[in-house]
Specification:
The protein has 186 residues and is of the alpha+beta class. The protein has two domains: 42 residues, no CATH class; 132 residues, Nucleoside Triphosphate Pyrophosphohydrolase (Alpha-Beta Complex). The chain is built from three helices and ten strands, in the order E-E-E-E-E-E-E-H-E-E-E-H-H. The strands form three sheets. The chain has a four-stranded mixed sheet with strand order 7-4-9-8, with helices on both faces. Strand 2 and strand 3 form a beta hairpin. Helix 2 crosses helix 3. It is globular, with a radius of gyration of 19 Å.
């Protein structure tokens, strides 16, 4: 069991070396050799990801707009908030604006940054910026040619029930639903 009475400084590992094992379009995988706080040598397999943005569109009647799409790692269709990876040189807010329009056809008069989340900090560097979009206007979508998705409308209260019952499993979407429910008093 870890020490409860130690300071955070006593928890840091020292990186001795890094070796890239894979470099793809979306992420890179590296293996780090580290020294633990007690001086032992170890290895960490890390997925290097440059981040993303997720946005939950909510209309004036407290309806949310999600996308449903097939997710290959799980071999099933999942319900998610519109989201995407931040492109080189792009700010997370611009990514969120792009994704809401591409995936749902909406533009938002107001976009509020509601935090960040580390998706899987044990092995991945991805940080997802989270946004809630209101004052929606439908302008038409322009999905990526390689994306196959369907937009679905759902009352926020029902989305919260789906989150709590396990019908929505995606972490970024769960965090956004809980944040939105609190903001809207549900």
């Amino acid at each position: 069991m870890g020490r409860i009475d130690c300071s955070d400084d006593m928890l840091f590992e020292k990186t001795v070396s890094k070796e890239s094992k894979f470099k793809g379009r979306v992420f890179e995988v590296e293996v780090k050799t580290i020294t633990t706080p007690e001086g032992a040598t170890g290895h960490r397999e890390i997925v290097i990801h440059h981040g993303g943005a997720a946005i939950l569109p909510i209309d004036s009647e407290k309806n949310c707009y999600f996308v449903k799409q097939f997710r290959s790692p799980f071999e099933k269709v999942m319900t998610e908030s519109p989201a995407g990876k931040v492109e080189p040189g792009e700010e997370p807010l611009e990514c969120a604006r792009r994704e809401i329009t591409e995936e749902t056809g909406f533009t938002a008069g107001k976009i509020e940054h509601v935090g960040k989340m580390c998706a899987t900090p044990g092995y991945c560097s991805e940080v997802i910026n989270l946004y809630i979009a209101t004052d929606l206007r439908y302008t038409g979508g322009t999905p990526d040619p390689s994306e196959y998705l369907r937009t679905v409308k759902c009352p926020l209260k029902q989305a919260l029930e789906m989150a709590e019952s396990g019908k929505i499993e995606d972490a970024k979407t769960l965090v956004l639903i809980y944040k939105a429910a609190r903001r809207f008093g549900i």
